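Final report, section 2: Outcomes. Of the targets proposed, Taurine---2-oxoglutarate transaminase is the one most frequently requested by collaborating groups, and we therefore present its record in full.
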Amino acid sequence: MASQQHEKNEIERLDREYTLGTWTRQADFNPTQIADTEGPRIVTADGDSILDFSSQYVCTSLGYDAERIADAVNEQIRTVPYVNPGWSTEPRARLSEKLAEITPGSLKKTFYSTSGTEANEVAFKIARSYTGKHKILSRYRSYHGATAASLSASGDPRRVVQGPEIQPEVPGMVKGPDPYAYGSSLDPEQSLEYIDEMLGLEGDTVAGVLVEPLVGSNGVLTPPDDYLPRLKEIAHDHGALLICDEVMTGFGRTGEWFASTLYETEPDIITMAKGLTGSYQPLAATTVTEEVAEHFEEHLLNQGHTFSGHPTACAAGLAAIETYEEENLVDRAKEMGAYLKTELEALADRHPSVGERRGVGLHQGIELTRSEEKRVPFERREDKMSGEPTVLNEVGASALSEGVYFYTSVNTIVVTPPLTIDEDDVDEAIAALDVALEISDNAM
Ligand code: PLP
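The predicted structure is given below as tokens.
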């Protein structure tokens, strides 16, 4: 079982001493060393084997044993480890062709970067150039990245911190409501009408409407089936492109290659990262339709990165997609997702502090509540950045002490295991949650 208290080893001490940790006060930065991995598990330096039901912020969708990727990366490093993006390499060309094949409809051409954040920034520039407009409309319950424009487009609590951490938002970012029925004053239909009205009130100056088709770190919010197609219609009526941020939901997570397909929608632009290489290499992509790509035949694509289309990362991406295909992991996510859904719903019936189960495929979550009648969160949005432990944190820590790691965020236990899991893994995770949820039940 994963121990929560352990003696700091040399690596943890060095890391603490010389590395600045992400999204944390450094006084709270006390990382545990992961020294090994096996299948869907991470193993600490103390030898604790932890079943990973987070996929590390929804990254390691292929688990930790994808030999094909290791071989492809190794081979590429030994042949062409790097050339600048002005040259052509086989892994980039073949990966771009493959992405055209697996993305919906006429999505065809891809621009590469190294993080989901950058993929979204690139999408903004493309949408602006294509439409000749400048604003980006996104939603309050969203996360799109950490740099100036992507963070400003996010509705995440990380955008609104005040005091010494404050970062001014870039201009031209507009926020609309979410299709979030549970505990919200607007129903999904009203939220669409609101966005329609907003686009008009902005004088049709919005270049792109940016959404996570199925929201991730802001609480695994699932829209009604007709939401995304209707949003696309509304965006197009106002001359804006639909940008789907599939950084979390891409690559089989929902039981389809992309969540846009799940909702029968062809976005004008899709952004992706994480699952693209199963996170064996840092790689992100912005794929656009043939029509949008056509615009750049005559107009400058005024964007580039030294590591755009990095050959080693592209080799990892290609090998990852071949692994999803060969192991039939997209269908598997659908099957295992159905089993997980049944088990999570049974869990919700047993535990009064589970307010709602949401999500599709292996992109699910449970939201906690202090009250069975109405939604009263254990962790409010502002708590996310406060550093103070919440009941949600305690539930996560308890599951970890039972040997299963979950990502907890914005009052929600995010349940996003690698697509390679089996029913026994689900049973193990549910058993850990069963114990952990006693904490929230008792805190009601
Ligand atoms: N978009 C979504 C939906 C995400 O979940 C994330 C990261 O979690 C990002 C964008 C940013 O990606 P990155 O952390 O690779 O910059």
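The domain at 67-327 is CATH 3.40.640.10 (Aspartate Aminotransferase; domain 2).
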